[in-house]
Amino acid sequence: MPINYYIFLSIALFCIGIVGVLTRRNAIIIFMCIEIMLNAVNLLLVAFSKMHHLKNVAANASAGSEGQLFVFFIMVVAAAEVSVGLSIIVMMYRNIHSVDINFLNRLKH
Amino acid sequence: MLAVFSALMVITSKNPVFSVIWLILVFFSISGHYLLFNAQFLAIVNIIVYAGAIMVLFLYVLMLLDLKKETEPQKNHWIKIAGAVAGGCLLLVLVAALKKADNINNIVATREGDIGLIQNLGKLLFNEYVVPFEISSILFLSAMVGAMVIGKKE
Fold first, then answer.
1. What DSSP string describes B85-123?
2. Residue B13 located in a structural domain
3. What ipTM describes this predicted complex?
4. Of A92-96, B14-18, B33-37, which range is least confident?
5. From A15's CA, which of A9, A66, B83, B91 has a CA 20 to 30 Å away?
6. Is the same domain home to B2 and B57?
């Protein structure tokens, strides 16, 4: 199937993630929408790595592997970021007993 | 498709536990797309890392905080509409920018090619990209230390 379909699918997932980050008030759900955005980018990278592989398969047997390795490293970074972000959310809950992000306006006063 | 519908249900569920379940469905559908590309290593790693570990972490935190129903007062109805309009504008701009690209109409064959097989990826990872691999282990160490320092009870 042409690569346009995968570009549009990845764009749709990314924009749904952005709408989720802007709209929701629960900090945990905002975090999950960041993961949706990361997965959309991963999908696009794998699709393009396959396209490059098919274009250069005569010259080099492992032409498109860099895309998939980059996706692997993105997953590594996402896992580390989830652990640190969730610990920050737990500390926030311990201080103000709510995960509503509108309560963080109190830093203004 | 299934991925887009599940992602929409993630952002429009009132109960946070439903959002986690829909997010697991999103991860499984994206792993299915990886399998269509014959990227077997990435599909399995996606399921193990994302749907296995990260979602379990989210569920632990949700159960720890004991959130049953999200409280959403009525006054930010306009914020929801504004957010949806902003995201929709971004979607329109990106789609319109990429619709007229007529030299990328390549057909991506889905089940051939062996760059997704784990032995080829592993050979490449350990021969040429060994420095990012070691640096990512240091990254994990620092993330673990950071998470433990932040989460300590005084």
1. HHHHHHHHHHHHHHHT-TT---B--SS--SSSSHHHHHH
2. yes
3. 0.84
4. B14-18
5. A66
6. yes
What domains does chain A contain, in order, with CATH numbers? Answer: 3-108 (1.10.287.3510)
Look at the pTM and tell me if it is higher than 0.90. no
Query: Rounded to an integer, what distance in angstroms lies between the CA atom of residue A28 and that of residue B11?
Result: 11
Q: Report the distance separating Cα B3 and Cα A13, nearest Å.
A: 8
Q: What are the backbone angles phi and psi of residue B44, rounded to the nearest 5°?
A: -70, -40
> Burial, B112: exposed, middle or buried (Cβ in 10 Å; 0-12, 13-18, 19+)?
exposed
pLDDT digits (tens, 9 = 90+) for B47-68: 998 888 888 888 888 888 776 6
B83 in any annotated domain:
no
Reading the block at residue B52, the tokens are 């296995």
For chain B positions 103-142, those within 8 Å of chain A (CB to CB) are 104-110, 112-113, 115-116, 120-121, 124-125, 129, 132, 136, 139-140
Q: Is the Cβ pair A32, B19 closer than 8 Å?
A: yes
How many structural domains compose chain B? 2
Hey, which residues does A100 pair with through a beta bridge?
Answer: A26
In a domain, B78, yes or no: no
Among B13, B41, B65, B149, pick the best mutation site for testing chain A contact (most A Cβ within 10 A). Answer: B65
Q: Which amino acid is at B153?
A: K
| CATH number of the domain where residue B10 is located | 1.20.120.1200
